Amino acid sequence: MLDSSACASCCLDQESPTLSGQEKRILGIGEDVFSKEHPRVHKIVQTFDGLEPVLDVERALYFTRSMKETEGQPLNLRWAKALYHIASNITIYIDDYQLLAGRLGCKGRYGILYPEIEGDFYETFLDKLGEREGGTAFISPENMRIIKEEIGPYWKGKTYHENFNAAVPQELHDILFMDEAGTLPRYLVNETASWRSSLQWVHDYGKVIKRGFMDIRREAQERLDALDPNSPTAYHEKRPFLEAVIIVSDAIMLWARRHAEKAEEMAAAEKDPVRKAELLLIAENCRQVPAYPAKTFHQAVQSQFFVQMFSRLEQRTGTTISNGRMDQYLYPLYKQDKDNGKLTDPQAMELLECVWCGMAQFIEMYISAQGTSFNQGYAHWEAVTIGGQTPEGEDATNELSYLFLKSKREFPLHYPDLAARVHARSPERFLADIAETIKFGTGYPKLFNDEEIIPITIAKGAPLAEAYDYTVSGCTETRMPNRDTYTSGGLYINMPAELELVLNNGRMKKFGDKLMGVETGDPRNLKTWEDFWNAFLVQQSNYLRIALDIQYITNKMRQKFFAVPMSSSLHDLCMKYCLDLHTEHIPEGYESGLADFIGYGTLIDSLAAIKKTVYEDKSLTMDKLLEALDADFKGYENVQELLKNCPCYGNNDPYADSIGHAVERHTMKFFEKYGKELGIYMDTRYVPVTAHVPFGRVVSASANGRKAWTPLSDGTSASHGADVNGPTGVLLSNDASKNRDMINRAARMLNLKFNPKTVEGRTGTRRLIDFIRSFIDLKLWHVQFNVINRSTLLAAQKDPQKYRSLIVRVAGYSAYFVDLTPDLQNDLIARTEHSEL
Amino acid sequence: MQDRLVTGHIFNIQKYSVHDGPGIRTILFFKGCPLHCRWCSNPESQSAQNELAFNSTRCLTHKACGTCADICPNQAISFSQQEGFPVIERKKCHASLCRERCSSVCHAGALKIFGKYITVEEALREVEKDAVFYQRSSGGLTVSGGEPCFQPEFLLALLSEAERRYLDTAMETCGQAPYEVLRGAAAHLNTLIFDIKHTDASLHKAYTGVENSLILENIKKLCAEFRDLPILLRTPVIPGFNDSEDAIRELCAFVAALPGKNISYELLAYHRLGTQKYQQLGRDYRMGDIKLDNVLMTRLKNFALVQLGERFVA
Question: What's the pTM value of the predicted model, to 2 decimals?
Fold first, then answer.
């Protein structure tokens, strides 16, 4: 009824805003149901919520001590032995009130160290840990001494980061880093491999729940006994692999047994008979799993939690280890216990929330500057996947799927990262529950579209049943736990920088006269749009080439620096071929690589503006454009407005969308041709995490009217405020710019911000369901929602203490708003809010 | 085929509209209205002429720009001393005759012309872009305004072509139109939304500029003739005009007397979200600072519910 386009500013501040569930919770409106209905979990949360994280050194210390002793041996054996040494010595904790065992460090929120990756940073960066933006932490003086005197010195010259840095040819190094040591990234073409062992991963947890490590150990032992004694490859390759599996199985079982002993010891001293019984139950469970098959739901959850936590002792992948399809692999024992009357839904939920509490206390502690700037707010996201389809292609939704959604609405912290798979036959009830959960306003669940993901996966050669059974992993990625192989941390490519290189003859204003691209000449000599476009492609090809060159180095290098005997023992193909999961090529494996493109919307809008104003309308000369950009639009406000006024991505405008399509096609054609040489599917993706903020800091004023050094657009979302025609236009642009016929593609991350009023009440839920159905029809990869009032974000900036628990969706994950840097906070506020009155 | 070439005068096409008919819809706002309601939240809809609006929050001011004054062939624009904002002398401004030069050079979007001409084909092509969303939500096209019936030829051509294309259609009308036009439109509609503002003729005239006899008559006739078309009657509750139990009682009685199960009734709360547009058009907002009492609104809704039962949309 109200024509709202004419009054965009007044519509943002409504007369009486509708509040989301989360906003009500923070403002203390309504009853605090959680503490009453979840007394145990509430008490556990109270023990750590809001505490500054503490750095625990035990993992790093025992890992280092063992690695000192095993030099010269095969790497997978060394790794297994190091894990055994950690399992034997690390302090065992059982938290008050908890029903599960398994933490990796001291009480409260804690982080652990991976010196094999970034030990060379310790001297320079650790001292600053208490003051850096995007995540601070506390280290005791004693631990600081251990790090500096015992851990750090051993790794000198041995870390992955140092060796990677040394292996990068000077020509590429100059583009990647500002300093010789490779600690200060330029954020142009950016490697992400040096602060993680590989990209995210997800285990086949169901295997452990069903079989247990005794059985995995038995299999390894039998195969070891059956090796051909005369075969040199059996002796040098298969034998160490199988021995490592045996040792690491022993390690995790020992770790569990030590928890059983601890629980028994605590039970003996416990006065309260109720708690005493709980501790004895914990002990009983820890003696059963993960050694043997789980017999109860409680044991299945414990088994999963042990594997998940132990794999963090094993390595740091990019964004920790995901939880996989929990509603699928936990379901058989959930159903058994419920049918037997031994389990109620509140009890099942309490156990799941005990897992969330365990995860929430673990902090992914990046020491390097770039690790932190890419993952602000202590980002880690152990995606829990629900819904989707079974390997047989049936709808997979079950009672547990609904329980996860309920838990997500009620549990007050930003764990777990809940991901829902949706498809054409997803039940209406499931979508309604998803919509209700999204409406709560913490950004969960993020949605993944089977109708897009499964066909691409099949086209790349996955067996149909495994494609149906994919799980979400990390931010917006997917995995098949027995088919995928490890992926190196991919390259991030700064798209608006590619354009700045055209406008400055291969240079970036941020970096002066130093050549950062190719000299494509004075842009004033580019007489036609075709000339300009071709110059852009030259710059882009150069960055794509660099990305592949770096990927080549990391792909070859990873297996020399990392081994993961436990993760490998859970992978069918690794066991079949006796190859560590870090091996560059695993037969029958589904091998991928990737580059993430940052600033897609910013680039499209800038190219569209140049095409229109300089080459078509001739309302600007190239000279005038360059002057305006040089001045960061000071004194050229009219030019800035002219540029902003050009067609923008996010409005279903073919003028802009077709440019996006062409830019993407160029990347995919390039990757299709040269990715093959690496033996991988090299994918074009748009998953910035929080990188669009640091990437923006090196890009001067851009031709879409964006001011210098401000954030770029995120994922495949529109530029800030450019999507003026509502959310349908955003989705349609996303669809139109996609190269549907190319398979070198993966996640296209898409953020939408809704005003709570838009989704108010039952009709609001209905509306959101319909919107999600259209998202499924359009076959878009991913979408996620922030349902929040802009005024709440502004209030949280002013009063961080009061809004300490405010959770917002940042990229593929949610974080506490107050933990983010001011830049990123402003970026979130500037995202277009979709409302309709 | 001829229908597609008929031209209409509109002022906006709004995507993702969710309060005017079922599902996710696109609203086509017609320009021109026979009523001039004091509370109108779309004042740019009223005149049948193109109009120039000025939004000061977007203006770069005379310091950084000034092209609008230079380009105006009628010298209708000067600048204010203090802020450097353009001042429009509306008597001199002939927005529809000068080819809207000032707004076309205003890249900041501070000067904007309300009103443009569009053919049925162009309009439907734009509307159909969101078809994927209509399919799932039972949404479609809503014609609103202004008053759609004020442009009968365009309206009927548009609706019949939309029907041919299986587009769901809804119309919002004030009802001040010849019955034949309303009847012709209703024959192509899937939903009709009809404003009913007051039962008192003189108050109606004072607040909207016209008496209500034709409107009430049209409602009765439509409800008698179209027994399957969902008809939603809506009353905007306006402080000082109809925010009383007496007024609502009379309205409910009128609604209750209508035949058919296809009729529902809704009360809409007055809001002030259009005030800024009055400033932009250089007009007075005659409602002043008055606000609707939320408690009273809730009471009136409960009251109407008691009066009408299931017919009332809570």
Answer: 0.90
